[in-house]
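Box 3.1 A note on notation
Throughout this textbook, protein chains are presented in two layers. The first layer is the amino acid sequence; the second is a C-alpha cell string describing backbone geometry. Keep the layers aligned when reading.
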Amino acid sequence: MSRALEGAPTLATVAEAAGVSRQTVSNALNSPELLRPDTLARVQDAIDRLGYSPNRAARSLRTRASHLIGLRVDPAVEDSANALMDRFVHSLVESTKVAGYHVLLFTAADSGGADIDRTNDTVHEYAELLRSAAVDAFVITDTYRGNPHAAWLSSQGVPFVAFGRPWGEAAAGHPWVDVDGRAGVALAVDHLVERGHTSIAWIGWQKGSVIGEDRRSGWVDRMHDHGLSTSRLSARGEDTLEYGVRAAQALLDAVPAERPTAFVCASDTVAMGVLRAMHERGLRAGDDVAVVGFDDSIAAQVTTPALTSVRQPLEQVAVEVVRFLGELLAHQPIADLGCVLAPTLSVRLTS
C-alpha cells in the first residue's frame, strides 16, 4: 500500500528499501525463521534505517485471523430519505458470510471523551480495534478528499477496501469499488428525453461534493449530447428534504418559457422535496412534471406516486468488496485496484 502520511514509513516502504516483497517484510517481523540469514539482515537493516515501528496489532493480523471485517457506521441523518447504507450493510453481511467472514459494526467515538487525543479523534475507533486484534481488515465508506481513515490505515499497513473511489488521489494504493454516478444520471436524462421532455432541471449538492459534481456532469454532458440547454435549470445545496422543496419552488417560479417540465435529482431525499413542492402547487408528478431521484431507496418505492430512481447495484458492490478483501488477506497481487459498476434506472410513475 502507498504511503498516505508523509514521513511515516510503512510496510511497503520497508519492502522497497530492502528490495523484497511486503510478505517477506511481514515474515521478517513475525516468522524470521522462514527467511535466509542474508535476506533477514537486509530487511532488518531497512527497518533500522527508516525507523519503521510496526503496529503490533497489524502484525497480528497476519498471524492470527479473527474472521471479522470492521465497518464504521454513522448516525442516521435527519430530514433524509437515504437508507443506502442499510442496503449496503445487509449485502456486505451476506457476501462476507459466504466467504467465511463476519462484519463487526462500530460507531464514532464520543467526542466528549477526555481520554481521546483530539488530533486522532477520527481514527480512534480503528486504533482501538487494532490494539485488541479484533478484526482482520476494514471496509470504509467515506471517500472524500483527504479522508483520514484511509490515510491512517494505509500508514499502518492495515488491509482495507473502500466503497467509493479515492477522489482526487490518483496515487492511492488501496482497492476500491464504486458505482458510476455520472452514467446513472445520463440514463435518467435519456429516459426523460425519450418521454418528450426538453426542459430538464438538475437539483444537486454543493460544489464541494465531488460525488455530487460527478453526478451533475452526467446531466450537463447528456443534455448537451441531445442538443438541449442547461441554462437557468440548475440548483445546488444541501442533501435535505427542505432544500429540495426550496430548489424546486425557485425553478418552478421561473417564467413559463424557462420553467422545467422534469427534474433529475442527486438523491431520493432531494427528489422527495421536489415532490412535496409540486404537491403544494397542485402539480401531479408524472403527469404535469416528471421527477427522477438517485439511490432507489425504500422511500422511493413506497411513496405515492412511486418515484423513478437510479439504482445502485449494492449487492454486486458487496461481492466485489469481499473479493478484494480475500485477495488482500491472502497476500495476492491485485492487478487493478479500482472497480466501477454500472447503475440501472428503476422507472415508476413519477416519470
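The two ends are 45 Å apart (CA to CA). The longest strand covers residues 68-73.
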